[in-house]
């Protein structure tokens, strides 16, 4: 009887030892998997910590249709920046053509043309040949960036300034978002508007910059310095939008982006879409750095709203993000 009791006690101890051993192994295995997952995530995102550099090849991106997008790049006597931007964007896999909006009094030099053409040809891969075109304008006007391009082969246009760089992965993400809503504007630089309550009525609006977006979490515009839209808006801007708006833009050298935002919102009745993307400013100064910039932009908003006969801008708080680069969502 006593031997049987000892045998049962020994069996229980062995069972408890086995259970504790298995539990310890499970805990260690779980810790190992957590550590391995963390290391993998850090290594896969390591390039994001070092800032932007021109990639040696196209990244692993979302699939895109054969008919991609055209870049329309506004530039003005910043040839080093132009070269840097073309060198970068010509690597983006969805790109079909680059149109450089040229409004300088002198045409581009042969050396500049040859240099940029060499860059584009060098960056072409997998039988893809990106077309490079200089769109020469006689008049110096910010409206030139929205002139209709007769031979444009793609519906999607990525309007970009020569002094801002976005990783190709961000551009391709924005292109995919635009494909889901091709009538609206999809961009990286949000701005806002709101009613000026101090005026005592609902007919006067204030232009809000980045800090207004950051504070309120809402926006109603994405600036054309970095935005996708349909090529049909070139025709509408040039031929159907009130000519007084284009004249105001030319005279004041400002607000063509606000005019385009109002035009698209007026056509769609919908808000734009803000895409999260890391921006690299490679230029030094611009119009926005000048004193009184916000006041002039506010004047533009109210002037253009009067021309449209109503406020077409629609506010939203939605933002598109790449869920593959977010741990928790």
Helix-strand blueprint:
Layout: H1 2-44, E1 69-74, H2 79-89, E2 95-102, H3 110-123, E3 131-136, E4 156-161, E5 164-165, H4 168-180, E6 186-187, E7 190-195, E8 205-208, H5 210-216, E9 221-222, E10 226-230, H6 232-240, H7 243-252, H8 256-268, E11 273-275, E12 280-281, H9 293-308, E13 319-320
Parallel strand pairs: 1-2, 1-4, 2-3, 6-11, 11-13
Antiparallel strand pairs: 4-10, 5-12, 6-10, 7-8, 7-9
Helix pairs in contact: 2-3, 8-9
How would you sum up this structure, described in words?
With about 325 residues, the chain is an alpha/beta fold. It is about 40% helix and about 15% strand. It has 9 helices and 13 strands. It has helices at about 1-45, 80-90, 110-125, 170-180, 210-215, 230-240, 245-250, 255-270, 295-310, and strands spanning about 70-75, 95-100, 130-135, 155-160, 165, 185, 190-195, 205-210, 220, 225-230, 275, 280, 320. The strands form 3 sheets. Strands 3-2-1-4-10-6-11-13 form an 8-stranded mixed β-sheet, with helices on both faces. A 3-stranded antiparallel β-sheet has the order 8-7-9. Strands 5-12 form a two-stranded antiparallel sheet. Strand 1 (about 70-75), helix 2 and strand 2 (about 95-100) form a beta-alpha-beta unit. The chain is globular and about 60 Å long. InterPro entries: GT64 (IPR053318), GT64_dom (IPR015338), Nucleotide-diphossugar_trans (IPR029044). It is a single-pass type II membrane protein. This is Glycosyltransferase family 64 protein c4.
